[in-house]
């Protein structure tokens, strides 16, 4: 028997594994440049959004400790700004210490 079919199969599996492993790396590289282009949400953006949750203390829906960084819509980011997965906040970054009336506990 020849080893040629097994060698071809191994070569194909190595190349396919490398291609699949590269997908997340390529996705992350694209996200970092896109994130830098997104403007930062300003107070009053939508849903009574504020960049500092302490400014929402008088809002009827606000509860102590609620911040964007611990909301179910939080998509991550750096220590100060990140992505929100809520439809009304697409295309802007929100402050990790911010708050809006769409807050959902994670």
TrEMBL record:
Residue ranges annotated for the High potential iron-sulfur proteins family profile domain, each copy included: 31-106
Signal peptide: 1-36
GO molecular function: 4 iron, 4 sulfur cluster binding; electron transfer activity; kinase activity; metal ion binding
Pfam families, per the entry: HIPIP
InterPro entries xref list: High_potential_FeS_prot, HIPIP_sf, TAT_signal
Family: Belongs to the high-potential iron-sulfur protein (HiPIP) family.
Gene3D superfamilies: High potential iron-sulphur protein
Keyword Nucleotide-binding belongs to the record: no
Keyword presence, Transferase: yes
GO BP, sorted A to Z: aerobic electron transport chain
Source organism (scientific name): Thioalkalivibrio versutus
Protein name: High-potential iron-sulfur protein
Keywords, in A-Z order: 4Fe-4S, Electron transport, Iron, Iron-sulfur, Kinase, Metal-binding, Signal, Transferase, Transport
Quaternary structure (record): Homodimer.
């Amino acid at each position: 028997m020849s080893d040629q079919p097994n060698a071809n199969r191994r070569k194909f599996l190595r190349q396919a594994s490398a291609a699949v492993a590269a997908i997340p790396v390529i996705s992350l590289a694209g996200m970092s440049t896109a994130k830098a282009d997104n403007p930062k949400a300003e107070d009053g953006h939508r849903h009574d959004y504020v960049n500092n949750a302490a400014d929402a203390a008088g809002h009827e829906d606000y509860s102590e400790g609620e911040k964007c960084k611990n909301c179910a819509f939080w998509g991550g980011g750096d220590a100060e700004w990140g992505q929100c997965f809520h439809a009304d906040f697409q295309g802007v970054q929100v402050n990790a210490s911010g708050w809006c009336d769409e807050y959902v506990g994670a």
